[in-house]
Design goal:
255 residues, FAD/NAD(P)-binding domain, single chain, three-stranded antiparallel β-sheet, five-stranded parallel β-sheet, 25% helix, 2 domains
Length: 255
């Protein structure tokens, strides 16, 4: 029997662990197969207070823990908001055809000289306003009916091109880019809790009073509740809130 069990070891989970530990609750953290969470897959983090010169995502998680995969952090990213700045004046690609991909592509045109949307179909699935926005943007190009066959790093340093496969003709082509963003959307890893706590139609945990879920004594924070921001700093803040809520709930129940 434990006072508090925290499932997840990203910024939210580790922040919750720090706060509950300092409250004397001796939390148990279950970190899963990817210690550090999604932040370990991004490059430099320059928007987290306390690191004026920036910090690598994995390094930040290592510090918190103290008090494609081969090219993660070298041109392959799942977060345009996090990494777009590093591609100023360069050409990049976004994989996907929904709202996530079109939003990422539009954001990246603030920095990149050209953004190519790679989609496995011949038309986008994004909402009509988002489609109108990307079609009207002269910096955005399209590779229809295509998938990424291989990410190329020909100079040994980072992404230099993508090998695309046309799903209609089978033809292979080379697309020179400096970076690739995965805009295929993210489903929160909440399947084990279906039927136990309330989830919305996209799988995100529904919170009621502050961070409390539909199950008394169960609190949620981080990306499993955040379908909008998905930033390290907002996750850490929600982890703090969940820890305080859990501490107060335990006190109220004589724990």
């Amino acid at each position: 029997m434990r006072n508090v069990v925290i499932i997840g070891s990203g910024p939210a989970g580790l922040t919750a662990a720090i706060y509950t530990a300092r409250a004397g609750l001796e939390p148990l953290v279950l970190e899963g197969v990817q210690p550090g969470g999604q932040l370990t897959t991004t490059t430099d983090v320059e928007n987290f207070p306390g690191f004026p010169d920036g910090v690598q995502g994995p390094e930040l998680m290592d510090k918190l823990r103290e008090r494609e995969n081969r090219l993660r952090g070298k041109g392959v990213s799942a977060c345009a908001t996090c990494d777009g700045f590093f591609f100023r004046g360069k050409e990049v690609a976004v994989v996907g055809g929904g709202d996530t991909a079109t939003e990422e592509a539009s954001f990246l045109t603030r920095f990149a000289t050209k953004v190519t949307i790679i989609h496995r179909r011949d038309k986008l699935r994004a909402s009509k306003p988002m489609q109108e926005r990307v079609f009207a943007n002269p910096k955005i190009a399209f590779a229809w009916n295509s998938t990424v066959d291989e990410v190329l790093a020909e100079n040994g340093q980072g992404v230099t091109a993508l090998r695309l496969r046309n799903l209609v003709t089978g033809e292979l082509t080379r697309l020179p880019v400096d970076g690739m963003f995965l805009g295929i959307g993210h489903r929160p890893n909440t399947d084990p809790f279906a039927g136990q706590i309330e989830l919305d139609e996209k799988g995100y945990v529904v919170t009621r009073t502050h961070t409390m879920t539909s199950a008394p004594g169960v609190f949620a924070c981080g990306d499993v509740v955040d379908s909008r921001y998905k930033q390290a700093i907002t996750a850490a803040g929600s982890g703090c809130a969940a820890a305080i809520d859990a501490e107060r709930w335990l006190e109220e129940h004589g724990k």
